[in-house]
Structures are given as structure tokens and as C-alpha cells.
Amino acid sequence: GIKVTGTPIIDVDGMIEKKQDGSIEITYNNTTHRNRQRFTVAHELSHYLLGHLDNSHKMLRDPRKNFSSDNYDIREVEANNLAAKLLMPKETLEHLAYTLGHTDIDDLSSILEVSTAALHYRLKNLGMI
What we know:
Layout: E1 3-7, E2 14-18, E3 24-29, H1 34-49, E4 59-62, H2 74-87, H3 90-99, H4 105-112, H5 116-125
Parallel strand pairs: 1-3
Antiparallel strand pairs: 2-3, 2-4
């Protein structure tokens, strides 16, 4: 039931908003790379799933810096971690790497349609590299 829209956005990669009627809308910058768009949508969805939208935060806007591993805002860290889990599940990564022999990061990132940076960070967090 969440509306997802791609549109050119200045200064942000994505945002999520709780409308007055209670509906939820995710907007992502459709001028970025497809892999970036996928991660952005997963990140915004994660804000929703984690309960980050509330009466005091009806809209969250995410500039590029919010997706950085150097960002220490707890809501952004949580949204990034859940987005990584949604797009790169541990079981899938283990199957691809250990069962099917896909160990090249470029190969894996292409299969999963994520950036090599996001994949590297996820593999490192899982202790796979």
C-alpha cells in the first residue's frame, strides 16, 4: 500500500512521507544509477518498517550523506542496515559465494543489483571478507 514514485529531486536521493490521510509515499531520485535507486527505496522502506515516521517526523528527507557508512545518526544507520539486509540477505550471499562460487564482488553486485561499495560493506559486516 505504499506509493513509490521516481522523479528528479534536487539535494536528496529519497524521502518518505506520511500524508494527512495516513497514506505513505516514498519518492526517489530517478536520475541516479538504478542500483542507487534500489538502495534508496529499500532505505526509505526501512524507515517505515522501523517506525521512524511518527507524529513529530511525518517526513524524512535523505541527502546522499545519509547513506554513508560515516553517518552516525541512529535512524540512518538502522535504515541502512535494514536496507542492506533486504537487498543482500545473508543466506543469499552465502549461497552465491559458497555454493555457486560467485566470489568476485563485481559479479555479485551485478547479480544482486547493488553497488560494489554497498556489497563490500555488507560482506565485511557479515565477516565474509
